[in-house]
Design goal:
This protein has 429 residues and is of the alpha+beta class. It folds into two domains: 13-68 and 268-428, Cyclophilin, CATH 2.40.100; 76-246, Glutaredoxin, CATH 3.40.30. It is built from ten helices and 18 strands. A hairpin with a 2-residue loop joins strand 7 (239-242) and strand 8 (245-246). The radius of gyration is 24 Å and the shape is elongated.
C-alpha cells in the first residue's frame, strides 16, 4: 500500500449547503480533530468489557462489512438533476478548462462567484486538480443567481474580462479567496472599482479589462445563458458534475474522486481482531507515547479498521492536522480520500464524548467512516450519536493531550511545529 502524498486536501469534514434562490446563503460546519503527546505511561492492566455488545459478527478469515467506492449512485431526490445533466452541452474549446485535456476525470462546475458554498467547494476542487494534474480537469461554467446575489453578474463579467487577457483562473481564485471582502458591496460600481485594483495587481491592462467587464452585449449573453439554465432545471450552485454524473453532496464528490486514488484499497479489510482479546494502541508521537484502550465490544468495525490500518503502516508519519483548543485533535491521513472504502457508524450505545480523551471516527456524513479519527480535548457532547466512539485515552496519557501543537488548517500554511504520529503499535491482552 503506497503511502498517501503529504498534503491536506480536506482539513476537516464539511457539511455544505448549496446556494439557491429562496434560501439563505450557505455556511460550512467543521467537525472534529485530535491530539497526541508525550511522557511515559504505565502499561498496567485496565478492566475492559470484552463481551461484544454490537450486532456485528466477527468472522475470522472473512472481511469486515464495508462499502468499497466503485461508483456513485444518484439519490432519488437528485434524479431530476441527472436528467438536466444529460441536456447540458459537452465540454468544448469555448469552456474555461484547467488541467490535462485528456484527463480521465472531468469536473464540470456551474457556480456563482458570490455563493459561499461555491467558494468552499472550489478550494477543494482546485486542490484535487493540483495534486493529480494529469488525472483531473476542471471545467468552469457561469451560473449567476442575481435573485439572491446582487453582484453575481458583474463578478462573472470580471472573470470573463480577465480571461480575455489569458488570466481567467487567476481572477477565479482572486474572486473566491476575497469573496468576504467584495460580496458585501452595495453596488456594482463599488465592485468595479475593487475589481480594477485586482486586475492591476494581476498585471492586466486595466483599461481593456474595464471595457470587457462592462461590455453590454457580453452581459446580455450571460443573462440569456443564465435564464436558459434556470429553465433547464439548474436551480442551485455549485452544480457539480463529474464524468457525467450529478454530485449530490460533498461526500459524493470525494467518494467519486477516490476511485482514481490508487493509494487505497479495493476490498474491505479482513477481520484481524478476536472477541477473546482486548486491545490497546500505543501511539508513538512527537511528544511521547499515548496509550488508547480500544473498545472492541462497542465498536468492532471501527476497532478492526483501526488495527488493520495501523498494522499496514497507514498511520506512520502522519501529523495531527487539525487541533483546536477545547475541542478535538484530528489525524488519520492527509489527502481526504480515505482508504477507498467506508463503513457504518456504531453509535447504538450509551457512550458519550463527555470529557477529554474520547477517541472517535471522523466522517463526512452518516456511515462514511474511513481512516481519520480524533481525540477530544474536552467534553464535546454535541458529537454524541453522530460519530462512532471506539476508544479512550488511558488516564496516565491524558495530560499529554494538552501538549499537542494547536493547528488550524484554515490558517496554517505548512506543518512546521505540528505533532506527528510516527507509528502505532497494537498491544494484545
Amino acid at each position: 500500500m503506497t503511502k498517501k502524498i503529504l498534503l491536506v486536501l480536506l482539513t476537516g469534514m464539511l457539511v455544505l449547503s448549496a446556494c439557491s434562490p429562496g434560501t439563505t446563503t450557505s455556511t460550512s460546519t467543521e467537525v472534529i480533530t485530535e491530539a497526541a503527546t508525550e511522557t511515559a505511561t504505565t502499561t498496567e492492566e485496565t478492566t475492559v468489557d470484552t463481551e461484544i455488545t454490537s450486532s456485528v459478527n466477527i468472522v475470522p478469515g472473512e472481511s469486515m462489512p464495508c462499502t468499497t467506492i466503485e461508483n456513485v449512485e444518484v439519490p432519488a431526490d437528485y434524479v431530476q438533476y441527472q436528467v438536466v445533466v444529460e441536456m447540458l452541452p459537452e465540454v468544448s474549446e469555448d469552456d474555461w478548462v484547467k488541467g490535462n485535456p485528456d484527463a480521465p476525470v472531468t469536473i464540470v462546475e456551474y457556480a456563482d462567484f458570490q455563493c459561499p458554498a461555491c467558494s468552499a467547494y472550489s478550494s477543494y476542487l482546485i486542490a484535487y486538480q493540483a495534486l493529480y494534474p494529469d488525472t483531473f480537469r476542471i471545467v468552469f461554467r457561469h451560473m449567476p443567481l442575481p435573485s439572491i446575489h446582487n453582484l453575481a453578474y458583474i463578478s462573472s463579467m470580471a472573470a470573463e474580462a480577465a480571461g480575455a487577457q489569458g488570466m481567467f483562473w487567476e481572477m477565479y481564485e482572486t474572486l473566491y479567496k476575497q469573496q468576504s471582502v467584495w460580496s458585501s458591496f452595495g453596488s456594482e460600481e463599488e465592485f468595479v472599482n475593487w475589481a480594477l485594483r485586482q486586475a492591476e495587481a494581476l498585471g492586466l491592462d486595466p483599461d481593456q479589462f474595464e471595457v470587457d467587464m462592462l461590455d453590454a452585449d457580453a452581459r446580455a449573453a450571460l443573462e440569456t445563458q443564465t435564464d436558459e439554465l434556470l429553465m433547464m432545471g439548474v436551480h442551485y450552485t455549485p452544480f457539480i458534475i463529474i464524468n457525467g454524473t450529478i454530485m449530490s453532496s460533498f461526500a459524493a464528490i470525494t467518494q467519486f474522486i477516490s476511485v482514481y486514488n490508487y493509494d487505497g484499497y479495493d476490498t474491505c479489510p479482513p477481520w484481524v481482531v478476536s472477541p477473546a482479546k482486548t486491545y490497546t494502541a500505543k501511539l508513538d508521537t512527537t511528544v511521547g507515547d499515548i496509550y488508547i484502550d480500544l473498545n472492541l465490544a462497542a465498536a468492532p468495525l471501527a476497532v478492526n479498521n483501526f488495527i488493520f490500518l495501523a498494522q499496514e503502516g497507514w498511520y506512520d508519519n502522519v501529523p495531527f492536522h487539525r487541533v483546536l483548543e477545547g475541542f478535538v485533535a484530528q489525524t488519520g491521513e492527509l489527502s481526504g480520500f480515505g482508504p477507498d472504502y467506508s463503513f457504518v457508524n456504531e453509535t447504538d450505545n450509551d457512550l458519550s464524548y463527555d470529557g477529554p480523551g474520547i477517541v472517535g471516527m471522523a466522517n463526512a456524513g452518516t456511515d462514511t467512516n474511513g481512516s481519520q479519527f480524533f481525540i477530544t480535548l474536552a467534553a464535546v457532547t454535541s458529537l454524541d450519536g453522530s460519530y462512532t466512539i471506539f476508544g479512550r485515552v488511558q488516564e496516565d496519557s491524558l495530560a499529554l493531550l494538552n501538549e499537542i501543537a494547536l493547528r488550524d488548517p484554515d490558517t496554517a500554511v505548512d506543518f512546521e511545529g505540528a505533532t506527528y504520529i510516527y507509528s502505532v503499535e497494537i498491544i494484545e491482552n
